[in-house]
Design goal:
185 residues; alpha/beta; seven-stranded mixed sheet; five-stranded parallel sheet; 4 helices; 22% helix; 30% strand
Length: 185
């Protein structure tokens, strides 16, 4: 494992244009392109491609095309979970999705972070990442964006179009930009 991949996996600043990381993203892009190009009804082929791409895919879980990710192997999906059309998972850090999760169309789970104050570091392509964890039996409406470092508790519902910038507890309904807890469930 090279220096920048190690730094990425430890949550430290790394350069995203490192040749090892670029090659791993190309691998993921090829698998995503093949997955996204499958014919309707090609469930077995889609599942095999996802198993080749992802860190883990629980029994009974599925993803609808189009699906995009950076690396794939940092994504773990539990059992009986569903990602609808056009999901984007930028997995520069681990993304863990629990069991019985339903994620609406055009959701984005974004682990990448870029230096805000250090303009030169950003110009030189330094970045870092923080993991995202989605609990069991969570439902995201369409177009939900989850930012780096966020954990969403079990049995929580997030309204369509919400931007989740901080942790959400279990058994709440949250919505808005930034998402805030509206009420308990």
């Amino acid at each position: 494992m090279g220096e920048h991949k190690g730094r990425m996996l430890r949550g430290e600043l790394y350069k995203d244009n490192d040749p090892e990381l670029v090659a791993e993203r190309y691998r993921a892009q090829r698998l995503c392109a093949e997955f996204n190009g499958t014919e309707p009804g090609a469930g077995e082929r889609r599942e095999q491609l996802l198993r080749d791409l992802l860190g883990s895919l629980g029994e009974g879980s599925w993803i609808m095309p189009r699906f995009q990710c950076d690396y794939g192997y940092l994504i773990e999906i539990g059992s009986n979970s569903f990602l609808n059309y056009d999901a984007i998972l930028l997995d520069c850090a681990p993304i863990r999705i629990g069991d019985d999760v339903s994620i609406g169309p055009r959701a984005q789970l974004l682990t990448a972070l870029h230096p805000m104050e250090d303009h030169e570091a950003r110009r030189q392509r330094w970045e870092s990442a923080a993991p995202i964890t989605i609990g069991n039996n969570v439902w995201f409406g369409g177009g939900v964006t989850v930012c780096a470092g966020v954990t969403v508790g079990d049995d929580t519902v997030v309204g369509a179009g919400s931007v989740v910038t901080r942790d959400l507890p279990s058994k709440v309904f949250a919505a808005g930009n930034p998402a805030r807890v509206i009420r308990g469930l």
